[in-house]
Automatic annotation (TrEMBL):
Protein name: Uncharacterized protein
SUPFAM superfamilies referenced in this protein's UniProt entry, alphabetically: NAD(P)-binding Rossmann-fold domains (SSF51735)
Source organism, top-level taxon: Eukaryota
Family: Belongs to the short-chain dehydrogenases/reductases (SDR) family.
Keywords from the named record: NADP, Oxidoreductase
Record keyword DNA-binding present: no
Species, as recorded: Penicillium coprophilum
One GO molecular-function entry: oxidoreductase activity
Residues annotated as signal peptide: none
Keyword NADP set for record: yes
């Protein structure tokens, strides 16, 4: 009997996360054990799908700011399956305004960057050789929004996590002193959180050559998060295409890169892009 693919999707209860779960159920040719993780820990609504008997969907409680829940999920999957094949880090938060509180700014970095990194690090010991990690980023993390001095620091080929954390902490200090934009940072904390995630993806890939670890922009998608910036041109199903390709599709053993379409409205399956 063929061994099942063990997959984890965070933020699985709605939006792109739910669409990724649905696509995995529909498109994966072999058996699948899918851990659908969300803060509520409820199973995603896939009632409109016929679930094959080879698919097991297991709801899981997970909060990106709760290390205990991260560790518990990793331990559960190791105990139940002796490892993991695919981790899709979809969960995130977006405060679409410049004048947010210090608590909201901290939350943005703690969820989108630190929380996602904590999940990656908790799962690295249980990832099977050749496994894949997909971090959902954004075009907002592109370095064109940052001063060249900051760009060079984010892109340093030997960047260490301690240095990346110092960079993020420096942003937070500048924001608290109300001089972040004057210091070359973009006006929204979300942009910095996703640039940090892109850099973290590069470091993780460099340190774990036995895995394929990439990040991507799914495009401007019709979710409650995406709708904060206007009327999104893409459906959640279209937004799931690039993450799904990085998780189970052909990517020619590419790792540590940022994938996107040429525009946030494009419905393609993505390609490697500079960020």
């Amino acid at each position: 009997m063929e061994a099942p693919l063990i997959a984890v999707v965070t933020g699985a209860n709605r939006g792109i996360g739910r669409a990724i779960c649905a696509a995995l159920v529909q498109q994966l040719p072999g058996p699948l054990v899918l851990y659908a993780a969300s803060r509520a820990g409820a199973s995603p609504d896939l009632d409109n799908l016929t679930i094959p008997p080879t698919v097991s969907i297991r709801p899981a409680q997970l909060s990106l700011t709760d290390q205990a829940s991260i560790s518990a999920l990793s331990a559960r999957i190791q105990n139940e399956n002796k490892g993991c094949d695919v981790l899709i880090n979809n969960a995130g938060i977006y405060h679409f305004q410049e004048n947010i509180t210090a608590a909201q700014r901290q939350e943005t970095l703690d969820v989108n960057y630190r929380g996602t990194l904590n999940i990656c690090q908790a799962f690295l010991p249980i990832m099977h050789k050749g496994g894949r990690i997909v971090n959902i980023s954004s075009q907002s993390g592109q370095l064109k929004y940052f001063h060249p001095r900051l760009q060079a620091r984010f892109l340093h080929p030997d960047l260490k996590f301690s240095e990346l954390n110092d960079l993020v902490d420096g942003y937070l200090r500048s924001a608290e002193q109300h001089n972040a934009t004057a210091s070359g940072w973009p006006p929204l904390a979300y942009f910095t959180s996703k640039a940090a995630l892109n850099s973290a993806t590069r470091i993780l890939a460099r340190e774990n050559p036995h895995l394929l670890i990439n990040c991507c922009c799914p495009g401007w998608v019709g979710t409650s998060l995406g709708a904060q910036a206007g009327q999104p041109p893409k459906s959640v199903e279209q937004g799931a295409r690039i993450p799904l390709r990085l998780a189970i599709g052909e990517i020619e053993q590419i790792s540590g890169r940022y994938w996107a379409n040429d525009s946030v409205a494009s419905v393609g399956y993505g390609k490697v892009q500079d960020w």
